[in-house]
Amino acid sequence: MTKKKIVAPLIIIIWLMVLSGCATKRPVLYPNDMLQQAGKVQSQADIDDCMQFAEDHGAKENTGGKIIKDSAGSALVGAAAGAAMAAVFGGDIGRSAAVGAAGAGAATATRGALDSGDPDAVFRSFVEKCLREKGYEPTGWR
Question: Residue 31: helix, strand or coil by DSSP?
Answer without folding.
Answer: coil
